[in-house]
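Moderator note: this is an archived Q&A kept for reference. The question asked for a predicted structure of one protein chain; the sequence and the answer are reproduced below.
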Amino acid sequence: MKILSTISKTLLIALGISSTFLIAGCNFAAEQKTTASPLKKESNWKQQFDEKLPFLGHRNWILIVDKAFPEQNAPGMEYIYANEELLPVLKLVLGQVNQSTHVKPVIYRDKELGFIKEEQAKGVTQFIQDSKALFAAQNVQTLLHDEVFKKLDAESKLFKVLVIKTNETIPYTSVFLQLDCGYWNADKELQLRANMKP
């Protein structure tokens, strides 16, 4: 009897320990579930851009680029991925820059774009028309693609270049915005320098 009683106690203790582990295991799993960091969601590029724009100023750049635009090693280049086509991204960025109080854009695009035929890249004709409508009366300068890279290479050594990469697959559609001061201009600067002369 004594042996049976001892065995019963041992079994009850063992069962108690097992159930404690089971409960603890469930609680641990539940705790893990609540404390584990959430899955990384796709980043919100609009929010990222809104946060960065106030820090950008005269001589910074914003690039809205096609999908094949390369990631570069220059320390001044910073990238945001917008999982959208180029024109909606350009529309939002241009709108935000134009409405800002501190900067205005000097707009560049690749000269090569004007020479691409529809049979070479389907949709290029419509893209050019739609982008012209976005620029409205703003002056747009063209540069050969390699010339743009030379400019960026020089500028990114001193000034931040923000690259917003899109899903656009028509070549040479990237748009490059060199930021200028929104509340000062070249004429005022010349006048200031004249005033400073003895």
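Archived answer notes: The chain has two domains: 1-36, 45-182.
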